[in-house]
């Protein structure tokens, strides 16, 4: 009991608002992508029961958006082949959105068959990644997305858009911000309500992020953007802070730092949700997420995967539960 109290004390410490910090957000919505972006990259196939329990536990943490699965080809990503079972079986809390990732109309039709209400479509800012990830060019990918979006709109679905490789690509190297700005505009014109800017291989720095965001904000407002940072180079949290300074109030993350893209070799997971919540608590930014509960879910999935958590905050706070 004393150890729980000590951990509560530590988590409260993260909530002290140091007023001199420059980030301007007062509320941030976290989009939890662990069940999709996280588990798609695991070498083991996680049993459906575990995925369902994972998502149900995440639903009890205060998160408002949890990306549940993807309806991509099982030949390409076998880890997500139980998409219909996962989506059908999770407890869908009415106040929580459970978007699913969709590559084409075939995927959308499967998602509709199990009652999906929100989808996420994904484009690439680099030709090399478009080819490796979706077997088509950027333009062909955008046409596929348009077909998906047109049908999804007829069915009154909410549609989120992703752009991968916003600053760098494992195949093509540096990506021009103007390319990302153009694709952002296109996806918004199609009907996406929000574009999540993905630093797929985590190479972004404060300066490259600033360059990128200045460009993208010539075509839209911060209210239409989200930031999606992988932590390969340990820059994810500072890149999120840069996005907050530009007025962006939605950040994607993955509990326990799970994740990566099977078609971006060497890229590690997303910024850990625990680390992001700790950062935002410290900024006095409200997320509505209970850090203690999140830590328990991070431990649950790490144990299921038989690997240690990649979240520094989880490691630091969870060990205080263990007998010394
Ligand atoms: C786009 C395709 C389908 C093209 O794949 P393809 O091989 O060019 O397409 P195809 O139409 O020839 O289909 C091949 C087979 O897959 C089937 N198929 C086709 N579509 C579907 C579907 N929806 N659901 C189930 N099955 C499907 C299709 O029926 C066929 O089966 P067969 O006739 O050979 O038996 C493939 O390349 C694909 O699925 N790619 C997805 C790869 C992926 O999931 N990557 C990870 C997600 S993106 C990401 O992680 C980045 C992000 C979003 O997090 C942001 C960031 O960090 O950057």
UniProtKB/TrEMBL annotation:
Source organism: Ignelater luminosus (Cucubano)
Keywords tagged on the record: Lyase, Metal-binding
CDD domains in alphabetical order: DRE_TIM_HMGL
PANTHER family: HYDROXYMETHYLGLUTARYL-COA LYASE (PTHR42738:SF7)
Family: Belongs to the HMG-CoA lyase family.
InterPro entries registered for this protein in UniProt: Aldolase_TIM (IPR013785), HMGL (IPR043594), PYR_CT (IPR000891)
EC class of the enzyme, as a word: lyase
Enzyme Commission code(s) on record: 4.1.3.4
Catalytic activity: (3S)-3-hydroxy-3-methylglutaryl-CoA = acetoacetate + acetyl-CoA
Domain Pyruvate carboxyltransferase: 28-295
Any one GO BP annotation for this protein: L-leucine catabolic process
Protein name: hydroxymethylglutaryl-CoA lyase
Pathway stated in the Swiss-Prot or TrEMBL entry: Metabolic intermediate metabolism; (S)-3-hydroxy-3-methylglutaryl-CoA degradation; acetoacetate from (S)-3-hydroxy-3-methylglutaryl-CoA: step 1/1
A Gene Ontology molecular function term of the record: hydroxymethylglutaryl-CoA lyase activity
